[in-house]
Amino acid sequence: MGSQCCFITALDWLSVLLAACPQVQNKSSTEHHHQFPKATFKMNIVRDFRIVRLIAALEQDIKNAEELLDYIDGELSHCRDEEKESAFRRMRPIVLQALDQKEFMRDKLKADLEELKDMFCTTTRSTR
Description:
Elements: H1 2-20, H2 22-25, H3 29-35, H4 38-48, H5 50-78, H6 82-127
């Protein structure tokens, strides 16, 4: 039962992240480095390092979804109730889809974070 509660929380988190992330996904290094003054650039870096917390939350949600998949697979392996088995079979692809979306978002945010680190290092070197 606890795993199912985590899954509901994970889906809620995913919708929040998907709503919040288009502004992060659309940023490019040239946009920050060449068009904005240094003060604005530094402010954007501080704001964007929230990505680290989002990545950590996604990794926890991924772990929860993997645990839920293990639970579903375990139930399916010894389930004798047709209704219950049918419910778990319907639930499994939903969990897999949510897991895939979370892994994609985590990988995208990690790439964005690396881009930000590269931009920050470039800006720091150019101001010395």
